[in-house]
Amino acid sequence: MQTLKSNASIHQIILLILAGESAFILPFVLPRIFRPTYLDVFTLNNLELGTCLSIYGIIALLSYLYGGAIADKYSPRKLIAASLLLTAFGGVVLSTFPSIQVLKVVYGYWGFTTIFLFWGAMIKATRVWGGTSKQGKAFGFLEGGRGFVAASISAIGVYIFSMILPENLANASLVERQDAFRYVILFATSLAISVGLLVFFFMEDPEETNMPVKSLDSSLVNIKKVLKIPSVWWLMFIVLSAYVGYKLTGIFSLYAKEIMLFDEIKAAQIGTFQLYIRPILGVAIGIMADKTKGSLWIIIGFIVMLLGSLIFASGVVQSDLNFLFFLSLTITATGVYSIRTLYFAVLQEGKIPLAITGTAIGLISVIGYTPDIFVGPVMGYLLDRSPGIVGHQQVFMMLSVFSVLGLFAAIRFSKLVTHNKE
């Protein structure tokens, strides 16, 4: 029986955690945490921001497959470092508050830099770090660590923004908001550059073991191999459904402002609060998954996500019900982040060979991350068409539908891997 040795130096996983979130702060975390502010300073509506995210998704979709293939051929260290440095350049452009046309180009550019060079390399390096028996721990540390980094960076960003804005937020002009937010953007840009340099100089390249780390076959041969693995197909739908959940959690800061009537700073703090759930869940779920089965916890995660989405879809969470808002947010985020922690941790459970991990990640992601294309515009359309609580209810009803789809796929995946062990 082949075994995968763990390349478990602590600084390796720390660098992967830092890189794993620094790459996505600019395109995703800032509009997630500061959504009301982001719309104001770039003079966008929800649909226009959704269109930018959709362009990112289209370019990313083309990048996943080929990016996964190069992750099976080249050093993760060089790929990840190049990705971060190139992504930072987009942050410099973002800090000028460009027109909507230029913003669309920037998001398309990020779709290439954060996926083609980065995604497959990061997931494969994490799988190598975890070895054969600690995949839950590896991906739990990655997701939990990324959550902690995102929450910490967001908290710093909120602090920077609040310190530069005048005390009377209601009277702050557009120019004053832009000046304050520019410092937040430049902070995130500097972080990407710094982490990129750290990765290039200090990350270790994975060592070859008796289970090959690199594939000697052509990319086309690897793609054919992956497509013959039944578990890959169910993982596509698991990732798809879970990623819809992750994308839709970006609505919480807007919900806080529009429905719960919080001000901009408190709304941004809500976005930061939900991110602190990620590190706690990531580590706890990862460790439990190694002791039981990752697929079991994915099933539980979808049930919890469905419960949270139905509470919000019912319309009962409104102003003056702050406790219910925080409780429902926590339930929804718990389900989303639990699944997100584990959907690549079960690659080993799904009998996917290490040497073609990058290719498998690419193929799974081609379907699994299509929400990058459609969720932003659909959510923007629903919110702009039906302002207030009705638009938010419709968004969470969409999440309920995908929770059911993901639950079905997770059950099928679990039965498949159980049958393969018998």
Largest sheet, in brief, is: none
Query: Could you name the CATH topology?
Result: Growth Hormone, Chain: A
**Termini, distance in Å?**
16 Å
Rg over CA atoms:
20 Å
Question: How many E-type strands?
Answer: 0
Spell out the helices and strands N to C: HHHHHHHHHHHHHHHHHH
- Indicate the low-confidence ranges by residue numbers: 1-7, 208-213
By secondary-structure content and strand pairing, the structural class works out as mainly alpha
Helix content: over 70%
CATH architecture descriptor name: Up-down Bundle
Mean pLDDT: 84
Overview of the structural elements:
- It is a single chain.
- The chain has a single domain (10-206, 217-421), classed as Up-down Bundle (Growth Hormone, Chain: A), CATH 1.20.1250.
- Helices cover 77% and strands 0% of the residues.
- It contains 18 helices and no strands.
- It has helices at 10-33, 35-41, 46-71, 76-94, 100-113, 119-130, 135-164, 174-202, 219-227, 230-248, 252-258, 264-275, 277-291, 294-313, 322-342, 357-368, 371-385, 389-421.
- Helix 4 (76-94) runs antiparallel to helix 8.
- The protein is globular and about 60 Å long.
- Residues 1-7 and 208-213 have low confidence and may be disordered.
Q: What would a concise description of this structure say?
A:
This protein has 422 residues and is mainly alpha-helical. It has helices at 10-33, 35-41, 46-71, 76-94, 100-113, 119-130, 135-164, 174-202, 219-227, 230-248, 252-258, 264-275, 277-291, 294-313, 322-342, 357-368, 371-385, 389-421. The protein has one domain: Growth Hormone, Chain: A (Up-down Bundle).
